[in-house]
Amino acid sequence: MDRRDFVRNLGLTALAGGGLAACGREGEGDGAPGGQTQQTHEWRMVTTWPENFPGMGTGAEQLAKRIQEMSGGRIRVTVYAAGKLVPAFESFEAVADGTAQMGHGAAYYWKGKSKAAQFFSAVPFGFTAQEMNAWLYHGGGMELWEETYAEFGLIPMAAANTGVQMAGWFNRPINDVDDLKGLKMRIPGLGGEVLEQLGGSPVNLPGGEIFTALQNGTIDATEWVGPWNDLAFGLHKAADYYYYPGWHEPGTTLEAFVNREAFEALSDDLRAIVRAACQAANLDLLSEFTARNHEALETLRDEGVEIRRLPDDALTALRETSEEVVAGIAGDSDLAGRIHDSYRRFRERVVAWHDISERAYLNARSG
Ligand code: CA
């Protein structure tokens, strides 16, 4: 948008004035270009993350700050960590019903609302971070995500990506696929369904409850994120074995979701700012996860944590079962079928490219 358009949009916003009161208090602008009176928007952001939790909690805070800075204070976002305004898993509902204007979480937490939502966080043996962003921004994924959340009155945005996660912490060794049987594991989303197919018992717990559940034996294992986040929770003090790779979450998108009425009450430039802030956060958080994970991995090694690769037969069984479970969602609705189709076709083509680019290069680099 050039400056002339920018100023014209500001003018339209000022003219629209009181008609834009959907999302909270209106205020007097301070020094807006052109001198028009500017509406300010007071937003609440509810999150599924513990306060200040590295990457997630801090990412939500940074996003709020970025939106406020980019908008020159015309959008002010107050962040509420999990449980402060509503419990973690009620965030989706709270933004849908207007209790908050914005939420920060991960789409697979909402599988009870829409099974198809899971495609927009992580798919077992699915996209890496780079592939996911390619699908979302340039492969039709974003439009399908918007369609999925439209029925709840929400607008989704990608707002972070963890990169490849770890398979998780186990209080007993996994020597073959049979060791997954009877395993009570905190693992959300599709990964949990895959584990269930292989005889395990998946549990969905918010991050803040994991350590205690693992330590007191309520669960036998947990996945969380990767070294940076897992170290912060002290999970190495509650289980002996740390397994890789994160087959179930190879590049998890974290999301911002915005109440549609609140978003539509914004002027065009403010809408663009919210979208751009999320896109910047998506890049920044992936970069931060990558930088911090390897530092934390060194610390965990120094602490004597036993880091193991999942056995081949377990990975093979998990991969084959994942294909079935993911395909099973396609039958949930017409929309789920279209999302699955889009995802599958994009994956086939991007894998063909990444086999001779990313994979070939990483193999060559390792010598
Ligand atoms: Ca995870």
Quick structural overview:
By secondary structure, the chain is an alpha/beta fold. 45% of the residues lie in helices and 14% in strands. The protein has a domain at 3-13 and 40-163 and 251-290: D-Maltodextrin-Binding Protein, domain 2.
What labels describe this entry?
single chain, 367 residues, alpha/beta, D-Maltodextrin-Binding Protein, domain 2, six-stranded mixed β-sheet, five-stranded mixed β-sheet, 11 strands, 45% helix, disordered N terminus, binds calcium ion
Number of strands: 11
**CATH topology term of the domain at 3-13 and 40-163 and 251-290:** D-Maltodextrin-Binding Protein, domain 2
- What is the first-to-last residue Cα distance? 48 Å
CATH class (first level) name of the domain at 3-13 and 40-163 and 251-290: Alpha Beta
What is the helix/strand order? HEHEHEHHEEEHEHEHEEHHEHHH
Strand order of the largest sheet: 7-6-8-5-9-11
- Give the overall pLDDT as a whole number: 91
Query: What structural class results from the helix and strand content?
Result: alpha/beta
The low-confidence runs, each spanning 5 or more residues with pLDDT under 50, are 1-32
